[in-house]
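Let's study today's protein:

:::
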Amino acid sequence: MSLITGKFFIFLCILLLAYYLLPNKKYQWIILLSGSLFFYTYASPYYLIFMVISSFSTYNLGLKIASSDDKSKRKRHVIIAVLINAGILFVLKYTVLLFDIASSLFKITVPEVNFILPLGISFYTFMVISYIVDVYKGEIEPEKNYLKYLLYVCYFPQIIEGPINRYSHMKESLYSEHSFNFIKCRNASYRILIGLFKKVVIAGRFGVYVDRVFDNVQGYNGLTLLLATVFYVVQLYADFSGCMDLVIGISNLFGIEMAENFNLPLFSENVSEFWRRWHITLGAWFRDYIYYPVFRSEFSKKVKSIFSKTKLKKHSMNIVAAVSLFSVWSLTGLWHGAAVHYVVWGLYYAVILIAGVFLANDFKKWKRKLNITKDTKWFKVFSIIRTLIIVTFGELIFRANNMADVAYVIKKTITDFSLSFSSISNAILPFTEDNTAIAYGGVAIICELCFIITEYFSYKGKDTFRKHKYANALILIVATLLFGVFGESGFLYMAY
């Protein structure tokens, strides 16, 4: 049941009525749990079975960790919980890839497998692991009520694409009593409209072009391929941030606060800042549960000790940071999918960020020599553009069907790039059979430019566009109905 269908709208309305009309509001969380379980059952009974079994095991392990004074037992329970959940994710998501690799390397016949991935398994796995680790570290008390714990892990808006909420952040609003508040519901509805507009108009229209080009990259010239790559960055941002607007807005309708997942990433001045602003909760998860543990591990201490006795002494901390970054981005690439180009995408950012660590001091010296300060506007613009170019190339690796397509796109962009009339004409080939599509594509570009301007004002602290919510809401509704691409199509990040 997609969030942009009429069926979901009916489901949401019924759930909201039951939620707020319930006489005893201390049981509102049961309404949310019932709705979430129905949401899962509607998608597939298989999803529900997986969720109940998996959550019950981690719930019990969390209680055992908290109740034990034996450090070795506590650590063993943590390892078991992590292995169970990470193991399930690995088997379901990566077995096919491993079989393909084995078949290619050893020229053997392997059995065909086709696992059904439970809805939101990647996000669910990270939430469960964070819960278990936080219980082990004593940062949270384990949930005593299994049904409340089940609600935390299967709460229906977040399971689709996140955000990856921590138990400590969610427990208060998730289980508390909430009375209907018109102002909050109005603001939540406005945010839902923004998310819907981003998804069905901007992402939907740009997606028509992107999908057609990347389905057959050999059929297009360099300009077309470059435009498709740039358009994909726009499509992915509009689709993913639009989904976050939807799920956060839906949660706000119930009085529940969720973590923000985007903070104007397209205005980032470097790659590190970009990833602090994009998919914030995923970045925070990798920082807290991978980067810092690796950075502070005995292995890292040994690495630092070894290099501190060599000519690379001054870089010993940087080397430890490099090991941590490599661990994070290797896993980030694998987390996104069982394919070579996802791994390469992760390594691409690992190299860039590691290079940034080692060159940070040199870069500061270079800026001082050129008398460049933080307030230098031209340099800020340059930094934003430079970051967008790096990110765009990264998204080419991410979107392409394989590395051969990546190489072909790069080659054609260099060798077959032209701004001649014929090249520009060919660049709109995906729409040549449908003039309406050309017009709609133009509308999508205009809408995106308007959103960029809006976000710029927001970035500068001049949020003037949101002062006229009712007029803006009417414009969003009309534009969405006229130019939106509707249907059962899911969100891009649901695949990960």
In short: Residues 185-495 form one domain.
